[in-house]
Amino acid sequence: MGLPTHENTERPLSRLLNALPEGVAVPSAWLTANGISPQLVRKYVAGGWLRPLARGVYARPVLPVEWQGVVLGLQRLDGCQVHVGGVSALNLQGQAHYLPLGNEARVHLWSHARTAMRLPLWVTAIQLPQALVLHGARLFGPETGAQGLAGTPTGLRDWTLAVAAPERAIMEVLSLVDETAASFIHAAELFEALTVLRPAVVQRLLEGCRSIKVRRLFLFLAGRQNYAWCRKLQPARIALGSGKRMVTRGGRLNKRFLITVQEGMDAGSG
Predict the structure, then answer these.
(1) Which residues contact 143 (CB under 8 A, 6 or more apart)?
(2) pLDDT score, position 109
(3) Domain coverage including residue 13
């Protein structure tokens, strides 16, 4: 079979250029599904309309593809139910005004799909300065779905990045608190910066959260800050389970929420 003629390549190319912004990674499966065969892809690469980023993934040639463009490809072109979450989402939205603990080179992604998922091979094949870390644990029940997600502009046409709003992002941060004092203190400092949250959104997310540790730790930190939005929560509607939970090794037991917290941070919280 010979090369495609100009006539039968012009329309797919026009559709591609109209559909795909510069700076966004496009998986080969999307190209095939949109009528652009592997033969056409090779022609577009040879003609300078596309460039390969790694095996099975391409981009338009002018703008560099940064991590935002890869995540946009995941969300918009590969149909993956992932969002930027945790401390990465707080940083994007100006809610964390210092470097995150041990995460300078990581972008945290969270799945909000009903089933567990992994990053596609085309994503892991792309060489980025940052590592894309996917947290597949289902922190919220299916009834929560995409609640607490927002769209953040990227500057790549009008495409927005799906990110966790601060109400959801801080709960994702709390879910990753380990037994070290540094981890607890870092999460508490991030919480302190959240002077304005939407109490109705917080309430819905806490009620839909699957983690007893996150529920207790969130309410402990909310009581410690006592911001105006904190006082509008209804803790009686939030199930806290039974028994003690160790959050910080060697910490002090908070008698109200039955969690161990960093020594010196328990004052005024019950």
Answers:
(1) 208
(2) 96
(3) 6-59
